[in-house]
Amino acid sequence: MLRQKRVAAIHDISGFGKCSLTVALPIISATGVECAVVPTAVLSTHTGGFEGFTYRDLTEDIAPIAYHWQSLNLHFDAIYTGFLGSFEQIEIVSKVFDQLRAKDTLIIADPAMADNGELYKIFPKTFPQEMKKLCAKADVIVPNMTEAALMLGEEYQAGPYTKEYIEGLLKRLSDMGPSQIVLTGVHFDDAQLGAATYDKNSDKINYLLANRIDGYYHGTGDVFASVLVGALMNDKDLDTATQIAVDFTVKSIAWTKEAKTDVRFGVNFEASIPSLIQALDLK
Q1: Radius of gyration of the chain (CA)
Q2: What span, in angstroms and rounded, lies between the C-alpha atoms of 134 and 141?
Q3: Is 87 a domain residue?
Q4: CA angle, corner 49, sides to 47 and 51, nearest 5?
Q5: pLDDT value of residue 210
Q6: 178: cis peptide before it, omega within 30°?
Q7: What pairing do the DSSP bridges indicate for beta strands 114-115 and 118-119?
Q8: Does any domain span residue 143?
């Protein structure tokens, strides 16, 4: 039997409203990959559209967890980071990369900090440049269009985009350090939406798009990135893994829209898990 791969997922956890660890853990586990978790904060709900949520910061626990894992000589095939709530957390997680990274460990960073042309209100304007430093240590980064512009210190541009603009963004992002880029929110018209990929080693760019579904749905970035991680851990190449993530996310959004689920509650990804297993050809 092949050795089961293991991912360390470093995210916050919201008790309700599917995002972060409540998405990463079930999705990555469904791909046959062990998902060890480092919770950076605990919230009663996510912060998008809910009021009165509880919040407990767990910054002080991140380093001790990493040290304990290091003492156990645990091997991680990937380290996957998402929303980090402060400069301090970025600094600590950067050190965790150094502690837990082996020669074959893939570092995947989702710089979750902005969307729709705006930095999340909890962050100061200097935050993207600190996130840029963390992404420089990653092998794969998964920014959306807003996050890409902010890390590059450029003005955000609303779509539709040209291929020349997207390809320029991809190469400037790779100049930061990561060898592979998955840029989300890419669209060239109003009919399709998806992601663009860039592999620095092969200098290859590709576009993985799907039919657009109107509306804004919370948690889709975490769903997408978690599927991407699971697919990469199943030895799918970057483009195949991205296409699987695009298809799964769109299917989950379509199910959510059809069910008329409150968009604050996150997307109905659970019902699409069988299709993910099939796409990965898991036995």
Answers
A1: 18
A2: 10
A3: yes
A4: 70
A5: 95
A6: no
A7: antiparallel
A8: yes
Give the count of domains, the chain: 1
Predicted pLDDT at 1? 47
Q: Which domain holds residue 260?
A: 6-275
Residue 183: per-residue pLDDT: 98
**pLDDT level of residue 193 (50, 70, 90 thresholds):** very high
Q: What is the mean pLDDT of the chain?
A: 96
In a domain, 207, yes or no: yes
User: Does 203 map to a domain?
Assistant: yes
Residue 146 backbone dihedrals phi, psi, to 5 degrees: -65, -45
For range 123-143, the mean pLDDT = 97
Q: What's the rounded Cα separation, in Å, for the pair 141 and 17?
A: 24
CATH code of the domain covering residue 212: 3.40.1190.20
Tell me the sheet residues that pair with 36.
8
Give the per-residue pLDDT at 214: 87
